[in-house]
Amino acid sequence: MIRNALTVDVEDYFQVGAFSTHIHRADWDRFPLRVEHNTHRLLDIFSEFNVKATFFVLGWIAERCPRLVKEIAERGHEIACHGYAHQEIYTQTCREFRAETIRAKACLEDQAQRPVVGYRAASYSITARSLWALDVLAELEFSYDSSIFPIYHDRYGIPGGRRWPYAMTTPSMSRLIEFPPSTFEIFGHRLPIAGGGYFRIYPYALTRFAIRHINRANHMPCNFYLHPWEIDPDQPRIPASWRSKLRHYTNLVRCEARLRRLLSDFAFAPATDVLSECTVEEVHGPVASPKGVVAGI
């Protein structure tokens, strides 16, 4: 049986990209933290189903909840890096990105007492504008990244990018494995079915069908993600645009039950274990983009 990657982006409800124009980072400390309690709930659910996951943790959260990272690691899960302050990489300079990544990685490794080798950008923000970040990740001794979503989206994505895990050559000729969030191809279009808002908005039957197709027809693992705040329907409501509210609040009340069904229907493991079990294509050169345009890597 193919094992799929179960991943958690450890951030709180007020830190999401959908609210970034409504809440300034300087104001984050004014909001009550709910991430620790919600992450503990996820840990208990995972224990109930005897499954391990990868937790991509924000450095900002780790600094304020130092016991949380240690507990995640002690319960047998993988600790990975989600950056420091959930800032989209394409809004940063290379120097800023390197500094915040060093800060976050060092904090996580100190708390977990183990190397941190996986990275996922805030809002999947390694795009054609920020491919330079891959060199920084390789330089900082990350072995894999999970930030390049091969779809069209208004905030992220490299349309036409590879759908399955691949080892790529970065601009400075370093090697880095990319584990893209999962998509399902239907009628010539790619449908993102990797989790998060897609998991809450789509009917569960669609998610189950897509993952089964990926496992059985494509013989590949799914890379699935969610956030601790997605099992917290009682979280405070943030004034925002209708689109942001749609993405963030739809079906929060149903997410935990759907997650339990998912854990019953499929086999899951941390991202590093899944990568060790599947075929990783060696890519020498650029990542393909649509209409013959090439984004160099």
Content of β-strand:
15-25%
CATH class: Alpha Beta
Which geometry do the CA atoms define? globular
Q: First CA to last CA: what distance?
A: 33 Å
Helix content: 25-40%
Largest sheet at a glance? 5 strands, parallel
Count of discrete structural domains: 1
Query: CATH topology, which one?
Result: TIM Barrel
Query: How many individual β-strands?
Result: 14
Structural class: alpha/beta
- Tell me which CATH architecture applies here: Alpha-Beta Barrel
Q: How are helices and strands ordered from N to C?
A: EHEHHEHEHEEEEEHHEHHEHEEE
What would you give as the CATH superfamily? Glycoside hydrolase/deacetylase
- Flag low-confidence runs: 288-297
Distinct helical segment count: 10
Mean pLDDT: 91
What value does the Rg take, in angstroms? 18 Å
What distinguishing features does this structure have?
single chain, about 300 residues, alpha/beta, TIM Barrel, 5-stranded parallel sheet, 5-stranded mixed sheet, disordered C terminus
